[in-house]
Request: fold
Amino acid sequence: MELQAIKQVYFVGIGGIGMSALARYFAMRGCLVHGYDKVRTALCMALEAEGISISYQDEESSIAAAFRSLDEHTMVVYTPAIPKDSAVLNFFKGLGYSMYKRSEVLGIISAGQFCIAVAGTHGKTTTSSMIAHILKETGYDCTAFLGGIASNYNSNFLAGNNNVVVVEADEYDRSFLTLHPDLAVITSMDADHLDIYGDSGQMEESFRLFAGQLKPEGTLYVKAGLSLESGKTYGTGNKEGISADNIRVSEGHFVFDYTDGDFWIEGIRMLLPGRHNNIKALLLCKHCCTITALTGS
Reply:
């Protein structure tokens, strides 16, 4: 489905962290946005306050008239967490709608844009939030779909005014294979979602396939020590790539020096706790340089 053709969107399972970010995006674009969820959570109430209509009854009758017939300008998005016998879900299937998962919609949104995709069995939300924050704070700007509520923005969606989009690339159900990023990050590959993959080898193969989704001139960053054959590595004491060195504590904060073989930045101060966040901050420095070079800005 072409992004420009979408005039109204219905979300089956709108209250999820990823689904609600998409709902905010389409509402920002001026689309009519409705949705269903089982529980009226704080996030659902926030969406309602932003003008998005939500039903909490899994019944056909709860669906607004604007969505009750097949329409080429309507997109229906669902989460796999919705039960297969859901009346709302099956109503739209019965009408003949193509049903889109969150990852597929992110693929549609990011197509034709400069896409930064962060993958990994853990670390995605913090890393993507930090990347989006630095792009916002420097004035470069971006649109971002985050897997958590960023406390300094009080949202999981950040609207931007350029063609840069930051997304979390979800490995669950191989969803990240719908993306074709310009810059990709793989933070970790711990054995997870084995109900989907069967074993860790199959899961790691899926990450290799994701790495292969890069655009021809794209760049891949991989946490040092992961069993991937491609990409620029990052970590602590990483002599082969991007490195955080001389990590120390000063006035209650972690401080480190950045090096990538070409540049050296001394005394980067982290406000977030944890040595692991120093490693994630390496990507902020490198991303800013790489984005500027690749986009010609």
Summary: The longest strand covers residues 242-250. The chain has a mean pLDDT of 85. The chain has two domains: 3-102, 112-295.
